[in-house]
Amino acid sequence: MRSRLPIYKTTLVVLLFAILTLLSVDGKPPASTPPHTAQGGINLQQAAGSPVIRDLSYLQASIGAYEKFEASFQVDGEFDNPYDPDEIDVVAHFTYPDGQKATVPAFFDVPYASANGSTLLNYSPKLYRSAGQPTWKVRFSGGAVGTYHFTIKAKDSQGRETSSQPAAFTIKPSTSQGYVQIAAGNPTMFETSADGNLFYGSGSNIAWVRSNDTKDPSKLSYEYFMKQAEGNTSLTRVWLCHWAWLEWTRDASKADTAGYGGKLQYNQYIASAMDRVFELAEQENLKLILALDDNNELMDATTYDSWAFHPYNAKNGGPAASVEDYWKNPEVRTLYKKRLRYIIARWGYSTSLMTLNSWNDMTRPNADQVAYLQDLRDYVHKLADDYRPVIYGSNFRFQANAVLDYVYSGKEKDQTKPNVQNETYYTRDADWFKTVLQGQVWDGLVTGDAARMVWPHNLVDQTGSWSVFRSLLAFVSDVPLNKKRWSPLAVKVVAAQAAAGEGLEPGNSDIRVIQLESYGDVPNFGVKAPENVFAIDEGENNQWLEGFGVTLYGANRKEWRNPPTLVFTPPVDTTAKLLVEVNEVGGGTNTLKVDVNGKTAKSVTWSGGRKVLKGEERFVEVPLIAGENRIQLDNTGGDWLRIQKIYILLDSNDPAYLLTAKGLGNGDAAIIYINNQTYGELYRKVLSGQPVPLRDVDLSIGGLSDGSFEVVQYDPTSGAELGKQSATSKGGVMSVHIERMQMDAALKIRR
């Protein structure tokens, strides 16, 4: 009996395919049947009414190691939804040359292609054209050289099953580095499976390509941005969510959401576009972090990306009565596992798929969320571990770190797993974007991140910043971070002098600036901030405050009040002050009260609503004390006030304080990055200072084994080697002298 499909009925599919072929953009007939066709097709022992596997074929009888093997076939049977493995469970059983076996899920595909040849991740049907007949496929990639055998098996909801006749193909040697996996010698780093070399992740999120990112039609495609990334970056993050959903709820009143059919209906426009994204990534030798969910999906809002339209919402035919129920409802997890199965079936073959990343812009999970993450992580491993390494992570952190394969990088690194920062700090000022980006990605390297990326690919492109990643990757290419554990070093700038004729003259200052900004999806109005305590790192000039609400609510808006507290300890021998920039106040009387360690340090009142504050009234200055400062910001007025940015200014009489240095070492080798903040955005814009080249910079480096070492200095901007020297570590401490630093410097230290 033929499959009974509510959307893709077999007879209608064949007719529709014929019509669309005639009307297709290129006007070409369907491709001819591939030459490699399995004989027979079904097991003669099948029970009556069992599914029928037919027309099994594949293009290549021989492929290179880790290249894609793809077989196509048809399945006839009694099922309504080809995306639901409870109705029709189709898998392929592979036998390796050495006898190892692997089970790989198959998937149902309705192929589409871009109507204009440019790849986007966009739901609009007008961007796509039909590209072939609906079919079942299985995709696989293997690294062992030799002959592989496989069979296809299909089982329906009645437990009736059948298998295809065995078929075979061969894998020959290739230059592929294989999959990315967690390093055997250092579980905080990644390496490639074929050669065991370090894989360090550096690049920009190319989450999507949309017209609001670029108005230049020549750049409005994944083809353009991945070509820009080629040779410059190693990693990107792509979103299978947030207007590129695989599974979402149709809103019948909105034509632009056509194609989203609700739970267990997978959007084939998006799936086909994602096929092309993976093909491009493979061509450009890029690895992908595939983002599966965004926190907007569970927000209480009326926009189409909110919980009101979620396919698992009970109001839309899903199982969950509320957002809280979503996390603990067993049927939600069952549905989500089926989606994960489809994702692994369709893209799990690809060596470009590095990690699965769930729930963007989440922070602190509850117990139900931790259990949810562990359940899904365990399922993915059960599904794929026998044929490829799987790395599952989330932007949830804290308690979630214990149940994930990698953790979202924070100030304190997890010493048992890779630390990945998907979105590092960046400035929105295009004039300073490249400089700030350089400092951020190098900071990630020398503080122990296994990967660090930045969010806005359009700003990377506009500012010509692709080379920032290239210089870092060239530097780290021969550093064996994956072979043994590396730990933070105690690096201190002991002394520094201004270069001759370029001293700290009027207009310059030996003040450091720490800039604090809100980050993440915390609406500016009408929501209680999810976090209210923030630890400030005195060694970081730019810091995101994730979960910080920029709007401070007064007594008339009690349900949204959640006054934030900043915890900060100034370095010894510095004078510190806080500068709060307020840019807007609500109606009536609003008062910013700043308490330090429980005592009011400053209180400023604004009367009458103001859309834009001007001049000095924007800034509230508060002196800080030596030792720990617990700084609470509160609105003791009636309505609300909005914070633009927060600065901490640290004043020292020592030019060495203009430098920050961090490093990573393993006893026998080290890497160090030294930042000259006078060339940075904050020093120039906030303090109106001028850049100061420094000379006679002395470093104290603790943590290396005793003995003689070679120290090589690099220019992080150009990647050029600037010179070599010898140095000796005695008692675990090494002294290094740098004659001159124009801007930043990187050091590579080895025996």
How would you characterize the overall build of this protein?
This protein is an alpha+beta fold and 751 residues long. The protein has four domains: 10-172, Immunoglobulin-like (Sandwich); 197-437 and 448-455, Glycosidases (TIM Barrel, Alpha-Beta Barrel); 487-499 and 659-750, Immunoglobulin-like, CATH 2.60.40; 511-651, Jelly Rolls (Sandwich). Strands 25-38-39-44-41-42-43-40-26 form a nine-stranded antiparallel β-sheet, with helices on one face. β18 (235-239), α3 (268-283) and β19 form a beta-alpha-beta unit. The protein is globular, with a radius of gyration of 29 Å. The model is unreliable at 1-35 and 37-45 (pLDDT under 50).
Give a brief outline of the structure.
With 751 residues, the protein is an alpha+beta fold. It has 4 domains: 163 residues, Immunoglobulins (Immunoglobulin-like); 249 residues, Glycosidases (TIM Barrel, Alpha-Beta Barrel), CATH 3.20.20.80; 105 residues, Immunoglobulin-like (Sandwich), CATH 2.60.40; 141 residues, Jelly Rolls, CATH 2.60.120. Helix content is 15%, strand content 34%.
